[in-house]
Amino acid sequence: MQTLKADCVLDAKAVLGEGPVWRAETQDLVWVDIESARVCCFYPATGENKTWDVGEKPGLAVPAKKGDLILGTSAGFVRLDLASGELSPIIDPEQDLPNNRFNDGKVDPEGRLWAGTMGMNEAPNVGSLYRLNRNLSADKLFDQVSISNGMAWTSDHKTFYYIDSPTRRVDVFDCDMAGGSVSNRRTAFELPSGMGYPDGMCIDNEGMLWVALWQGWGVARFEPGGALLAKVEVPVECVTSCCFGGENWDELYITTSSRDLDRTGRAEQPLAGGVFRCKPGVSGPPTNLFLG
Question: Which pLDDT score, from 0 to 100, does residue 3 have?
Fold first, then answer.
C-alpha cells in the first residue's frame, strides 16, 4: 500500500467542513461548513477564502453553468447568487420532514444534481436520495438512508457508487444515465476494520475510488473490488470528503471536521477543520456543472 501525505492549505477551523468541488473557470474550491451555515470559495493561488452565511445548514454546494451555486440545505434545494449573496428557493422535497437536511451531492454527466438527506439527529433510515432535474423538479431515487454520503460514476456512466456511512460499505448500482435511474444495488466492498467510516468519495481517471475516512485519519484509495491501494494521511481524525481539482485535475482536495473534539482534542489536532491538498500521482475527471 502506498502512503501519501497531505498539506494543510487552509487552516479554516471549520466545525464540519464538507463537500469540496473544484471550479475550473475560476480555479477555486467550493466547500461548506455545515454547522456554521457557511458556503465558501477558496482560491489556492492567493489563499483567499470567501464565505457566505446562508442561514440554513448547507450539506452541499455545487457549481451551475450560470455561474451561481446550487445548495442542498435543511430547507431543501436553494440557489445562491455569489455576486449578490441572494438566496432563491428551488424546491424542498422533504417539507414534511423538518428534522432532515441534505448531506452531500454530485452533479451527474447529464447536468442533474443527485443529493441525499439524513436526520439532523442521525436517526437511522429516515433519509433518501433525490435527483434534482434540469427543469428544477425533484425525483426520489430510493429511501431508507441513514447518512447519505459519497457518490461517483464510472467513466462509461453505467455504474454508480454510493455510501451510506453507518453501513461502513461502498455500494454499487447499475446506472441508466439517460433516464437518471439506478437498480440492482449490491455491496462493492466494506471498509477494513480500524479505518473508521466511509464519508465523501470521488473517482479517478483510472477508475479507482478515493474514500474519506471519518474517524480514520485520512483518505483511502480502493480498487472497485475493495483492494486497498493507497492512503493519504491527514493529521485530523475525522476526514469528511475529497475531490480532484487544480489546473490539471491532479490535486486531491480534502475537507475535515473539528465538531466532536473537546479542548484536549483540539490541542492534539490543531488543524482540524482545515482544508488539505495532496498530489497523488493520478488525475480525476472534470467537475460536472448543474445545467438547470
Answer: 98
- How far apart CA 181 and CA 174 sit, in angstroms, is 9
**φ and ψ at residue 127, rounded to 5 degrees:** -100, 175
pTM of the model: 0.97
Residues in the chain: 292
DSSP-assigned letter for residue 13: -
Q: What are the per-10-residue average pLDDT scores of the chain (292 residues)?
A: 97 98 98 98 98 97 97 97 97 96 97 97 96 98 98 98 98 98 98 96 98 98 97 98 98 97 95 98 98 95
Tell me if 80 sits within 8 A of 52, measured CB to CB.
yes
Sorted by sequence, the CB contacts under 8 Å of residue 198 that are 6+ apart come out as 149, 150, 163, 165, 168, 169, 170, 191, 211, 212, 213, 214
What pLDDT is stored for residue 41 in this prediction?
98
Q: Give the chain's domains with CATH numbers.
A: 2-278 (2.120.10.30)
- d(Cα 188, Cα 191) in Å, to the nearest integer? 10
Catalytic residues: 199
pLDDT for res 83: 95
Residue 46, sorted as left (phi over 0), alpha (psi -120 to 50) or beta, turns out to be alpha
- Determine the Cα–Cα distance for residues 287 and 253; give it in Å rounded to an integer: 13
Alpha-carbon distance of 220 to 200, in angstroms, equals: 11
Sheet holding 169-176, edge to edge: 148-153, 159-164, 169-176, 181-190
- Bridge pairing between strands 228-233 and 2-5: parallel
